[in-house]
């Protein structure tokens, strides 16, 4: 996946400039920003859907819901990089909220009772895993924000290490270190 602004022919300042114009009261800048970033936001949503087989939303629905959340807030983003990190976070939150809704709807509705020995063999379903990973990433973010961003971009957006490095404007070795640390930290946090 290619994040806009990471290609030599693209103009990363364009997104930053549109954000600043929108912040300055130019309502047309908001529309131009959406036109410029919409396909990339849909690509982020497609990657997130592929990474989470249990998701019941389409990529378009996920992108639209994430955009609705973003547009419902004041544009406080500092630049293009910050904007795409917020998009990834909004996408993650939509997926998590959707998983929570599905779990809530399942509770008590025709669930067969299992003996304790049979329950031990039942694996955690995708929705529960998604919620647990989200909570663990939030805890990781309190410890090291950049590492949480790296894991979020890898797990919820599906970016590769070079794409993560370009998005966060860090070196590939730094992205690798953060990925190793974040994955090890999540593994420890998610153990029963």
Give short descriptive properties of this protein:
single chain, 192 residues, mainly alpha, 73% helix, globular
Strand-helix topology:
Elements: H1 12-23, H2 27-51, H3 59-71, H4 80-106, H5 116-121, H6 126-143, H7 145-157, H8 161-168, H9 172-190
The SS-based structural class is mainly alpha
User: Which term fits the overall shape?
Assistant: globular
Q: How many strands, which pairing sense, and closed or not: the largest β-sheet?
A: none
What oligomeric state best describes the polypeptide chains here?
Answer: single chain
Total separate domains: 1
Q: What's the tally of helices? A: 9
Helix content: over 70%
Question: Brief description of this entry?
Answer:
The chain is mostly helical and 192 residues long.
Describe the protein:
With 192 residues, this protein is mostly helical. The chain has one domain. 73% of the residues lie in helices and 0% in strands.
